[in-house]
Amino acid sequence: MNIEARVTISRGSDDMIRIAVECASSHARFVEVKMDCEGFAKAVTGQGFIHCTAEVRGLDVVGKKRVVERRRVVAPDLGMVDRKEYERWLKEEYHEAGWIVDPALRSQGSISYDGFGRTHLNFSVERYEDVAEGEKP
Question: What's the DSSP call for residue 27?
């Protein structure tokens, strides 16, 4: 399978080089390679088979198209609680077939109130779909 991808190379505070590969259509970061600076220098100057560690994840969505939609629900009355309690409620209680809930309520408009004492949660759901033949992801 050939895919369009993006590569990011960074250096952490631990002085390790990280090379991350992300699928352009699903936005899944599916490989992260970690190596020391000496190994990275050897690799970019042509020496092969340099030791590193690699984390592989999310292969089930690589090559698929990420679809994101916004949702708005009336939250139960949890009393005077912070954002984390509403995030916990979304994660545990809100389910929609075929969709993955992103319970993060980070933006200013994520939690809103109406004139009737109800709390509304504005959040995203996502799913991954196969890309049709000839379709651009």
Answer: -
Confidence class of residue 137 from pLDDT cuts 50, 70 and 90? low
The CA distance from 89 to 108, in Å, is 18
Q: How many CB atoms lie within 10 A of CB 4?
A: 10
- Alpha carbons 61 and 9: distance in angstroms, whole number: 22
Q: Write the pLDDT tens digit of every residue in 2-31.
A: 899 999 999 999 999 999 999 999 999 999
Q: 8 is written with which tokens?
A: 């990011």
Q: How many CA atoms lie within 13 A of 95 on its CB side?
A: 3
DSSP code per residue over 48-72: -----EEEE--TTTTTSEEEEEEEE
**Three-state DSSP state, 88:** helix
Question: In sequence order, what are the beta bridge partners of 69?
Answer: 125
Give the whole-angstrom CA distance, residue 37 versus residue 39.
5
Q: Please state the domain extents for the chain.
A: 5-56, 65-129
Give the pTM: 0.76
